[in-house]
Specification:
Helix 7 links the parallel strand 6 and strand 7. 45% of the residues lie in helices and 11% in strands. Strands 1, 2, 5, 8 and 9 form a 5-stranded parallel beta sheet that branches. Strands 3-4 form a two-stranded antiparallel sheet. The chain has 14 helices and 9 strands. By secondary structure, the protein is α/β, with parallel strands linked by helices.
């Protein structure tokens, strides 16, 4: 886990359908005033659509015992789903995954090219996914530069630029000196940090799903995928509440996902659940236009936490403020902890 004490349970707000609004008993207040009060009190009525940017880590793919053909299946599934639902996204690349032993694999490079040809963006997630909390800064920075060679060239060929960096594990340093030095390094190399406001433990569901896939357990795969969408719906509710409590409104969210088999297979159900919450899908650029993303991030420590929680800690919030994050069902954890023998 890379969380900082964030627990379980989140309720979906009560919503009155418009048809119900006009069947209410005669009010004691003037009708217009009653309707205004209902619009204020009811999420989704009289409000602009919620917005979310999709971001995927660990490109070209993060899969259990997967070869290049499995990577291709994941890539094709993700891109087809994004295209089907007209969702802009950015994928963050670990270029170490492009190599077969020490040889650059052109088939894997082609998977990144497919993201660009599909109209999506690419960012840098480092070469080998090191941890800034345990890696000397110079070595960490060298890994970042090594992780941009192929991606930067592909973007240049497409007439585009490499602009965003996503910290592995969302770790940003144990002390302000390291954190600040690395942020200066990123600025000098033309990077903007890609923050996250909706983090989750999707990677546990995904590994459990992969274990079931390798075993050929279709029923368990379906059960995990179904529970995953329920879990993610609750996660959205939790971070919506966190945004309202901290900022007084719901900012355009930045969702962290991974390029894995589960997200490729469950795309339609996940998108339907998110749309049902009233979301439009925006680019990372569009999300970051919100003024909240200009708040200072002064958090240092071992946890990889969202920017909403970084801002909350900077404001002095503690303990109870962070309570309420949904937990993972026991059967999913069991499947995660039980890799196949073969």
């Amino acid at each position: 886990m890379r969380k900082l004490g964030r627990p379980s349970g989140s309720a979906t707000p009560l919503v009155f359908p418009v048809r119900t609004l006009f069947r209410l008993p005669a009010p004691t207040l003037p009708a217009a005033a009653l309707i205004i009060l209902l619009l204020i009190a009811t999420p989704g009525l009289g409000q602009a659509p919620r917005r979310v940017a999709f971001t995927y880590d660990d490109l070209p793919a993060n899969i259990f015992r997967g070869d290049v053909s499995a990577m291709r299946e994941v890539t094709d599934g993700l891109l087809a789903g994004l295209r089907r639902h007209r969702i802009p996204a950015i994928g963050f690349v670990n270029e170490s995954k492009l190599f077969d032993d020490e040889t650059l694999d052109e088939e894997r490079v082609a998977l990144l090219r497919a993201w660009l040809e599909g109209g999506q963006e690419l960012g840098n997630h480092s070469f080998s996914h090191p941890d800034i909390n345990t890696t000397p800064l110079e070595e960490y920075q060298a890994d970042v530069l090594e992780g941009e060679r192929v991606t930067r060239a592909l973007l240049a060929d497409a007439g585009r630029e490499l602009r965003y960096f996503r910290h592995p594990m969302l770790h940003t340093g144990l002390d302000l000196e390291t954190k600040s030095a690395f942020e200066r390094f990123l600025g000098e190399h033309g990077y903007r940090i890609a923050p996250v406001t909706i983090d989750n433990q999707e990677w546990i569901f995904a590994r459990a799903y992969d274990h079931a896939h390798v075993r050929g357990d279709v029923d368990l795969k379906q059960r995990i995928a179904t529970e995953y969408v329920v879990y993610m719906d609750s996660i959205f509710g939790y971070y919506e509440q966190q945004s309202r409590a901290l900022l007084g409104y719901e900012l355009p969210q930045v969702l962290l996902l991974h390029a894995n088999r589960l997200n490729a297979d469950a795309m339609d159900a996940l998108v339907s659940a998110i749309r049902a919450r009233g979301y439009d899908f925006v680019t990372l650029d569009e999300a970051l236009e919100d003024e909240a993303y200009r708040l200072p991030d002064e958090y240092v420590g071992r946890a990889g936490i969202t920017w909403l929680h970084r801002w909350a800690l900077a404001r002095g919030e503690r303990g109870e403020f962070f309570a309420g994050e949904p937990d993972i069902p026991a059967f999913v954890r069991e499947a995660y902890d039980s890799p196949p023998d073969r």
